Amino acid sequence: MTQPGTMTPMSRQMQDCVEACMSCHSLCEETMSSCLQMGGQAQMQIMRALMDCSETTRMCADMMMRRSPMSAEMCALCAQACDMCAEACTAMPDDPQMMRCAESCRRCAEMCRTMAGATM
What we know:
The chain has 4 helices and no strands. It is an all-alpha fold.
């Protein structure tokens, strides 16, 4: 039994999802920096997807950590943002940074979809 004022510990599944979100957030930020160095108009769609994914994954992790009652809905939205970002990154298959980011996004999307269906 938990004492008043203490939260129930996060499940392993939720901890893993938070870690996947934070890892994805970091990789999106690094990839944005890489994208900016490349320049060019073609990167604008990728940049938007990276920005959306970066912000969504950070917010999703924050909401899970504070046990927000909206966590499941946020996880579903985060999975969507991650899917879109992974797809955008695969437009540059020869860029190792983009491929690392796409893989991180796919992993995060999968974990968030699982959490969206779980009882938080």
